[in-house]
Design brief:
CATH class: Alpha Beta
Order of helices and strands: EEHHHEHEHEHEHEHHHEHE
Structural class: alpha/beta
Shape: globular
Strand order of the largest sheet: 5-4-3-6-7-9-8
Length: about 300
């Protein structure tokens, strides 16, 4: 069996057993899924994703990972499955709220998830009628996700348009091919994506979003502002991730200085706001707070609107 994926305008066959989440950056999608599963089963959950644990259970790379906090011997004291997982739960809630508020108040009906990974927002959020969610990611990742969801007989709550393309290829053309309307306002989301991209790729992606966005469009994304990521190599968050599940995030992150994407958007007329995750921890009363040698210190969540 094989699935098709688009790369540079050409269609290639991908073996069905290649899930795209078994190594490299792809495994971080499983990390986030495990964190969402743990968050889902907390009594004080900030966000619920009933599908997340099924991705963790379906992939060999995540065999044995916890999907509930009670599976973690030291619980919330564990830097990975406690503090870091709670960070992902908070991020999920904040971006869920952003998406739903944007489609309800701005009137936008098309949502584009860049680097969608194992995102299930098309299935679990209460979308207005006529909404369409475009999921842009590599064909192998989307095929794995949809295979798991099909096995659960999951039904999307909005029209779902998979866009099987590597973001290093011509994703703009692939998006147009499945019905993206560049004359209509769009809600864009790049969750946990940009810090894996080279600086030039980030500039190109943000510039493309600007070109494709009509007035009324909005964008949310996450960046890291540290001038030197290696400063935090011995942070409990990074060391625990490497030791417990074998994912060295610092090896996956792009090391070059990051561009000022929020400034670039502002220069083209977008209104932008930049926030620390800790602001939302205080707002919701749950989530990580600053600590010594904190690998989250440079994380920023950016929200932008094109007037």
């Amino acid at each position: 069996m094989s699935t098709a994926h688009v790369n540079g305008g050409h269609v290639f066959a991908t073996p069905q057993h290649d899930t795209g989440v078994e190594e490299g950056v792809g495994t971080t999608a499983l990390l986030v899924a495990a964190a969402r599963a743990i968050e889902t089963h907390r009594p004080d959950s900030l966000a619920r994703d009933p599908f997340a644990e099924h991705f963790v259970l379906a992939a060999s790379a995540s065999a044995g990972w916890p999907t509930r906090l009670r599976h973690v011997p030291d619980g919330d004291a564990n830097p990975l499955w406690g503090r870091f997982a709670r960070y992902f739960g908070l991020r999920t809630r904040v971006l869920d709220d952003f998406l739903l508020q944007s489609v309800r108040t701005a009137g936008a009906r098309q949502v584009v998830l860049l680097g969608a990974g194992l995102d299930t927002r098309a299935y679990r959020l209460d979308w207005p009628p006529d909404s369409v969610v475009f999921e842009v990611d590599r064909a192998e990742v989307l095929a794995f996700k949809h295979r798991v969801l099909d096995g659960l007989s999951a039904k999307p709550r909005a029209a779902r348009a998979p866009v099987p393309v590597d973001l290093r290829a011509d994703w703009v053309a692939a998006l147009a091919d499945v019905g993206f309307d560049r004359s209509a306002p769009t809600v864009w989301l790049a969750e946990g994506l940009l810090f894996y991209l080279p600086a030039d790729a980030e500039r190109s992606l943000v510039a493309a979003v600007d070109r494709l966005s009509t007035p009324g469009s909005v964008l949310a994304y996450e960046v890291k502002l540290e001038p030197d990521l290696m400063t935090y190599r011995d942070s409990p968050l990074y060391t625990s991730t490497t030791q417990q599940i074998g994912i060295d995030l610092l090896d996956l992150f792009a090391k070059e200085p990051r561009p000022d994407s929020a400034g670039a958007l502002a220069d083209t007329g977008w209104s932008t706001s930049v926030h620390t995750p800790f602001e939302f921890t205080r707002r919701h009363g749950r989530g990580p707070l600053p600590e010594e040698n904190d690998a989250l210190a440079g994380n920023r969540w950016v929200f932008a609107r094109k007037p």
